[in-house]
């Protein structure tokens, strides 16, 4: 049985230099079991790329970090950083940043540039790396794609970089940061995947 993946993009102009593209993926017809296996992994055989469709959290693990600067109502979600997870989810803790003041005005990077340790391992208000809470391992998650387009030659003007965040509100009214990615002026924008 033939199937196809259709996409719908919506664009949002964030600044004169930055355009956000939200890409929603949908399966337009029924699929057989072999096709369903590839679709569940978000893999498109035609383009030989991950499509952003969906992934199993057992194969592509997610971890939750509590940010107690905001109380119990603020959580960040990161993937494990394995190659497969990075290809599908691209939400590694190594590229992450978290708010550390309760007002979203001061952030800390989560890479290991602080003497080999992540900031969350040094700050008691954040879940340390060893204690990150694994998300339910048997859940299928739907994934869409967000792309940022920069104007050619954009150099961040007076900024050191940008932090891109996507969040939602959970059923219990907790704020869940689905992605909190940092991109510094010194990063190679042509190879840094947001």
Notes on the protein architecture:
- The strands form 5 sheets. The protein has a 5-stranded mixed sheet, with no helix packed on it. Strands 1-2-12 form a 3-stranded antiparallel sheet, with no helix packed on it. A two-stranded antiparallel ribbon has the order 3-4.
- The chain has one domain (5-184).
- The model is unreliable at 28-41 (pLDDT under 50).
- It is mainly β and 194 residues long.
- Helices cover 7% and strands 38% of the residues.
Write a concise keyword list for the protein shown above.
single chain; 194 residues; mainly beta; five-stranded mixed beta sheet; 2 helices
Largest sheet: 5 strands, mixed
Spatial ordering of strands, largest sheet:
10-6-7-14-13
Name the overall outline: globular
Relative helix content: under 10%
- Tell me the count of domains: 1
**Number of separate helices:** 2
Q: Separation of termini?
A: 35 Å
What is the N-to-C order of secondary-structure elements (H for helix, E for strand)? EEHEEEEEHEEEEEEE
Strand content: 35-45%
Mean pLDDT: 74
What are the SSEs and their pairings?
Elements: E1 5-13, E2 18-27, H1 33-40, E3 43-44, E4 49-50, E5 54-56, E6 62-66, E7 74-79, H2 83-88, E8 97-99, E9 107-109, E10 133-134, E11 140-142, E12 145-150, E13 161-169, E14 175-184
Parallel strand pairs: 7-14
Antiparallel strand pairs: 1-2, 2-12, 3-4, 5-11, 6-7, 6-10, 8-9, 13-14
Précis, in short:
The protein is mainly β and 194 residues long. The protein has 2 helices and 14 strands. Strands 10-6-7-14-13 form a 5-stranded mixed β-sheet, with no helix packed on it. Strands 1-2-12 form a 3-stranded antiparallel β-sheet, with no helix packed on it. A two-stranded antiparallel ribbon has the order 3-4.
């Amino acid at each position: 049985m033939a199937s196809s993946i259709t996409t719908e993009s919506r664009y949002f102009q964030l600044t004169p230099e930055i355009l956000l593209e939200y890409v929603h993926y949908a399966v337009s017809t029924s699929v057989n079991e072999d096709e369903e296996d590839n679709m569940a992994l978000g893999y498109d055989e035609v383009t030989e790329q991950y499509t952003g469709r969906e992934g199993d959290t057992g194969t592509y693990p997610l971890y939750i970090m509590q940010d107690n600067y905001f109380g119990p109502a603020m959580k960040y979600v990161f993937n494990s950083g394995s190659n497969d997870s990075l290809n599908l989810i691209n939400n590694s803790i190594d590229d992450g940043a978290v708010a550390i003041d309760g007002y979203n005005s001061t952030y800390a990077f989560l890479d290991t540039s602080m003497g080999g340790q992540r900031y969350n391992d040094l700050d008691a208000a954040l879940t340390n790396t060893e204690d990150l809470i694994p998300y339910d391992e048997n859940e299928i998650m739907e994934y869409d794609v967000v792309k940022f387009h920069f104007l050619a030659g954009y150099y961040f003007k007076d900024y050191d970089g940008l932090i891109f965040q996507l969040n939602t509100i959970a059923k219990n009214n907790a704020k869940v940061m689905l992605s909190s990615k940092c991109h510094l002026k010194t990063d190679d924008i042509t190879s840094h995947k947001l």
